Amino acid sequence: MTTGKVVILELDGDLQHGFRTTLEFRSQEALPILKVKGGLPSAADLAAQLEQHWQQTYRSLGIAQRIKGQKIIHKGSINRRLLECRESAKKVRDRFRLWLNAESFQPIDRRLREHLHRDDLICFVLRTDDHHVQKLPWHEWDFFERYTNAEITFSSPEYEHILPLRKTIHTTNIRVLAILGNSQGIDVSTDRYKLAALSDAEVEFLVEPDRQQISDRLWEQHWDILFFAGHSETYHETGRIYINQTDSLSLSELKYGLQKAIANGLQLAIFNSCDGLGLAHELHSLHLPHMIVMREPVADQVAHTFLQYFLNDFSRGSPLHLAARQARERLQALEPQFPCASWLPVICQHAATMPPTWHELLHGVSTVSQRNAPTALVPAPSPNASEPSASQSSQEQVGEPSAPPVHNRKLRVWFGLRSLGIILGLSIVVTLVVLGARWLRMLEPLEFSAYDHMLRSRPNETSDPRLLVVAITKQDIEQLGEYPISDQTLLTVLQTLDAMHPRIIGLDIYRDRPTGNGWIKLTQYLQTSDRIIPICAHPYGNTPDSGIAPPPNLPSLQVGTADVSIDPDGIVRRQLLAVDPPNGSPCTASYSLSAQLALRYLEADGIALTFPTSNQWQLGSVHFNVLDAHTGFYQRPDLMRGHQILLNYRMYGSLSEIANRVSLTELLSHRVNPDWVKDKIILIGVTDPTVKDDFLMPYGSELRGLLFHAQMVSQLVGAANDQRLLLRFWPFWIEVGWAWIWSVAGIVCMGWMPRPIWRGVAGGTLILLLGSASFMMLLIYGIVVPFVPAGLAIASTCVVMMINKKAIARV
Fold first, then answer.
1. Does residue 96 have a pLDDT over 50?
2. Cα 241 from chain centroid?
3. Around Cβ 446, how many Cβ atoms within 10 Å?
4. CA–CA separation, 467 and 533 (whole Å)
5. pLDDT at 355
6. What span, in angstroms and rounded, lies between the C-alpha atoms of 284 and 127?
7. Would you list the DSSP string of 421-490?
8. For position 160, what pLDDT does the model report?
C-alpha cells in the first residue's frame, strides 16, 4: 500500500443556500500541496428529504433502540415500514448523488481522481458545521466505491493546533474506561464481553455509575480509550448520555474531567449508543482527537456487530478509519432487518490529528499530523553523562579511530584538497539531481505554493488612479430587466462615456452577434470610434468551434483577445500579451485586450512599443523578456504560447479594489464624477456572480474576468509610467549557480558543526536565510528566485552528510 494521504474537503454554507467548497491535498507529514475551489448548489429539497427519512420513516420502524425519551410512532405493519424505509433511503441516496454531480462540484471531483491512486491509504476529512451534511450518506458517493482504502471523517472548520499527545504513564496495555449506562430494554452485556476479550487491553468497567464515579476515574487514572454503551440522544445539537436509571448528563458537565483525561493521553472515544452527533460536537470543543458515534438511533444487534468487527480489525493493526469502514460495510448484511445499518457509524476527529493504529495507542505515539516528530521515548542520560559508557569505550578501542580535534577538522574543511573534492563532487551531484527533478516538473506544485506564499506576503499598494471599472452588477441586470445587455443599452453606455472624454475604453463583452435592439447602430459606432477596444477569443485547444469573433468589420488592431493563460493547478500567474491567431480562428486579433488598452494609453504619453530582440519588449525605458519554453519553474513548453510575462498583481485592500468602480445604473443616471472618466482607461464588463467569469488567483481567492483585465492593464502602464516592478526569472545559468551555492553551504555547515544537533540547527538556519533572501529579492528587485530547488539542495546535502558519517569525518 502506498503512503497515507490526507484529503480535506471544507463546505462553507448550508443546504438551503449552497456551499462554497475548498479541497486540499496533504501528506501525513506535510503542509498543503494542492488547493482547489468549487461549489455545491442549494438543495433545500434534499434537506427536507433527509429530515423526513431520519426523523419520520427511519424512527417509525419500531425496533428496540438505544435511545431515551424518544417516542416511537408505529405506522402500519413492520414489513411495510421496512420497505418504506428502504425506499426512502434509496431516494435520499439518489438525490445525494445527483447533488454531487453538479457542474460547480466537478473541479473538486476531477482533482480528487487525478491526484489519488486507487491503492492510496486516504483519510478523507469533511469540515462542516451543517448538521444536515453530517447526516448525508457520504459513503454512497461513487468516489468511495473506487477508493476502497478511504473513509469519510467529520471535523469542524474551526479548530486550533494541539500539542502532540503522549502517555503520561507508560504501560504495557491500552487502558480503556468503559461506562455501561442505563440499559433498560437493551443489552449492554454483549458490549462488555467483547471489550473484555481484547488482547493488549486493560478495561475498567463502570456499571450504571453516578456522576462522581465517572469524574473521579477521569481525573485519577490515565486512559487511552473512553467507551460508552447505553441510552443516549441529541437534543438541540446537545448530546446526553443516560448513566443510570435516574441520571443523565451532557459531556459539558464532565468538562474538567474530560480535559484532564485528554491532557493525559485520551485519544479515542467510542459511543456505541444512539444519536451521537451531539456528543461528538461537545467532545470536539475539548480537542479530543477521535470519536466514533452512531449518527441516529441504533439497534442492539447493529451496535454489537459493529463493535465486534471494528475491534477485531483495529486491534490487528488496521488504521482506525479503515477498521471503521470495514466494520460499517459489514453491517450491510443486517439491512434486510435493520435498514440503513451501514449508514450509522461515523468518525469525527480533530482537524489537526491523524487516525491512529492500535500499535500507536499501545506505545503512546502522537496522532497529531506531525506524527514523526521526536517523542519522549528516548533513553535518559546516565548519571555520569560526562563519562563514556562501556560500549562506547569498546567501540573506540576496536572500531574506527576517534574524530580529530575540532580545530583540525575545520582546517581540513577549508584547506584540504580531499575535503574540497568531496564538497564539489557532492554539491554538483545534488544540484544536478534537484534541477533534473525540476526539469521533469516534479517540483512544480511546491514551487507554485512557495511563489504564491511570497506574493501574499507583500505589503499593499495604492489603487491605480488611471483606471475606471464600469461594472454591470446583478442589481443592474435586475433593474434593466435584460441579460445579456442589449446593443441599444451598450451603445448608450459608450456614448455617455465618450461625452466625458476618456482616453481609451475596453469592452469586456462579446458582441459577435445581435443582442436585442440597436445592433446596426452599435456596430457603426464601433467602426467609427478610435478609442473603443472590444474583445474576441481564439479557439481553445483542439475545439475550433470554441472561438468567438469580434464585432463585424473591425480591423484586428482595434480588437483585443480575451484569452487567459492558466496554470495546471487552475491559477492565473501569467499575463498573455500577444499570440499568433491559429488557422481558421474567427478571432484575428494578435494583442490581448490588456496590451491593446495599455499601448493605446501610453501612446498619448509618447511611449511606443519596440522589440530590441525577438523575445524582448521595450516600453519607454523599461525592457522585459517574455517567458520561453523553460523559464524558472515553468518547464512546460505547451504553456508558453505567444508572448507572456509573470503577472504582478496590485493589491489594495483586496484584488478587486484596484481602481475606482461605478455601476452601470450609476453611469446611465449620470451619477459619475467626470474626473474619474476624463483621460482615463475605462473597462466595461459583467460582475454579476451568477455569470461564470471567475479565475483563481495566487491569493487563494477568485477574481472576476473584468478585474483580471484591469490588473494586467495596470501592470503594463505602471511599469512604463511609474517604473513599477515587473516580475521576472533569472537566466538558467544563474539559477543553476544559485542552487549549487546553497548546496555547497549545506555541506560546509555539516562538516563545520561538531555535533549533530548543531548540524540540524545550521541546516534550518540556512533554509531560513534562503527564504528571507528569496522574499527580499522578489520585494526589492522583482526577481523570482528558485527557492524550492535551492532549499531542496540544502536539505539533500544535509541529509546525505548526516547519514554518511564517514564523509563527515573526512571533512
1. yes
2. 36
3. 19
4. 15
5. 80
6. 12
7. HHHHHHHHHHHHHHHHHHHTTTTHHHHHHHHHHHHHTSPP----TTEEEEEE-HHHHHHHT-SSPPHHHH
8. 64
CA distance linking residue 386 with residue 165, whole number of Å:
32
The alpha carbons of the chain give a radius of gyration, in whole angstroms, of 33
Q: Tell me, what's the pLDDT at 68?
A: 62
pLDDT tens-digit map of 725-773:
999 999 999 999 999 998 888 777 766 555 556 666 777 888 889 889 9
Report which of 675, 315, 617 is spatially closest to residue 466, judged by C-alpha positions: 675
Between 760 and 233, residue with greater pLDDT: 233
Percent of the chain residues past pLDDT 90, beyond the cut: 47
pLDDT tens figures, 503-523: 999 999 999 999 999 999 999
Containing H/E element for 225? Answer: strand 225-229
Task: Judge contact between 225 and 105, C-beta under 8 A.
Answer: no
Segment 103-114, tens digit of pLDDT? 999 988 888 888
Are 15 and 40 spatial neighbours (Cβ–Cβ below 8 Å)? no
Between CA 734 and CA 740 the distance in angstroms is 10
Burial degree of 759 (CB within 10 A; 0-12, 13-18, 19+): buried
pLDDT in tens, 690-705: 888 888 999 888 888 9
Beta-carbon contacts of 421 under 8 Å, excluding residues fewer than 6 positions away, are none
- Round to whole Å and give the CA distance between 481 and 472: 12
- Cβ proximity of 32 and 48 under 8 Å: no
Q: Distance (Å, rounded) from C-alpha 751 to C-alpha 414?
A: 10
Alpha carbon 215 to chain centroid, angstroms: 39
Instruction: Note whether 240 and 247 are within 8 A (CB).
Output: no
Beta-strand pair 622-625/268-271? unpaired
Average pLDDT over residues 146-167: 75
Q: What is the pLDDT of residue 748?
A: 74
> Which amino acid does the sequence have at 745?
A
Q: How many Cβ atoms are within 10 Å of 495's Cβ, its own excluded? A: 12
The position carrying cell 420502524 is 61
Label each residue of 112-153 as H, E or C. Answer: HHHHCCCCCCEEEEEECCCHHHHCCCHHHCHHHHHCCCEEEE
Residue whose grid cell is 477498521? 323
- The upper half-sphere exposure of residue 257, i.e. CA atoms within 13 Å in the direction of its Cβ, equals 19
CA distance 677 to 611: 32
Structural contact between residues 241 and 181, judged by C-beta atoms closer than 8 angstroms:
yes
Half-sphere exposure of 571 (CA within 13 A, CB side): 20
User: Following DSSP, what letter does each residue of 177-202 receive, concatenated?
Assistant: EEEE---TTS--HHHHHHHHT-TTEE
Local structure of 535: helix, strand or coil: strand
Chain-centroid distance, C-alpha 597: 36
Which residue matches cell numbers 474531567?
A: 257
pLDDT band at residue 399 using 50, 70 and 90 as cut-offs: very low
Mean pLDDT of all residues belonging to the chain: 84
Confidence of residue 684 (pLDDT cuts 50, 70, 90): very high
Q: Match 427511519 to its residue by C-alpha cell.
A: 58
DSSP class per residue in 361-426: HHHT---BS-TTS--S-SPPPPTTTTSPPHHHHHHHHHSSPPPPPHHHHHHHHHH-HHHHHHHHHH
- 547 is written with which cell numbers? 472561438
Report yes or no on whether pTM surpasses 0.70.
no
pLDDT band at 682 (very low <50, low <70, confident <90, very high): very high
Other Cβ atoms within 10 Å of 407 Cβ, number: 7
With cell 454554507, the residue in question is 13
The x, y and z cell numbers of residue 313, run together, are: 480489525
Q: Residue 765, class by beta-carbon neighbours within 10 Å (0-12 exposed, 13-18 middle, 19+ buried)? A: exposed
